[in-house]
Amino acid sequence: MSSTTEVKMGVDWLKTTIATLPTLSTDLPGGVHRDVAPLKTVAPFGIIQHLSGQDTITITGKRVLTGILYLFKVVGTDEDIADSVYGSIDDLLSLDQVVAVDGGYIHACYREDTNNYADSSVVGITWRHSGGQYRLLIEKV
Amino acid sequence: MADFNHWNKAADAFPDITAKIVSDTATAARKNIRKQIRANGQIDTGNMYNGIYTVTADNSTYQSGKRYLPEVPRPEDNQSAYVASAADYSVYQNYGTRYMAGRAFWEPGLEQTQADFERNLKKIPQALEDAAK
After folding, report:
1. Cis peptide preceding A44, ω within 30 of 0
2. Which of A47, A74, A87, B24 gets the highest tally of CB atoms within 10 A of its CB?
């Protein structure tokens, strides 16, 4: 049994997959962060957040798969750019075949819901959060 | 035939039985979402916690509170129910802001409700049998 976790395996796969976007450095200059971006991160940037997860177990209690729901969103001050960058990345986040990763396998990745809202946590600046909720089926070995 | 054929009674009762399952599952979702808010340590005044409500065709647990959004409209029939969060800042607590990480309570609460839904579905055969007596 490896020392990683299913949640981390999923986060790493998401980051690796997003990194394959050819225009990543210009589209997402602030990079991709887990949960929250550090202060002064250049916008737009990406956020990956764990939302929930459920194990699938055998009748003998052996864990065979974990279905984890992640939020991936692009956060920026320009609504059109945030939506457009997210749209490009969404095209990458679809997996219907098993891939090997450190610690096990990712069996699938599909979007379950959209996620789009604005927040005004700084007076005078509206931040747009544009993303979706992705279910990853993860097997840890 | 009339002595042993109780099909009509069972068929007539079916929509009411499923309506109860819908309502019970919505109530379970509300409870599970609230439980997750508590587990996440997101209770300060209790405003967001109290603002998790259910709406069915003939009932609503919506109540007034600080920074509450308007109540969602009633579903058109008793085969649907809504679970909603009234506090307008719930989305920021759940998914985060530019400067604050989200702490999800909505999705974990709904996932926990899947087991309640399946448990409720298992009550259908007995309920039909009782209705047909």
Report:
1. yes
2. A74
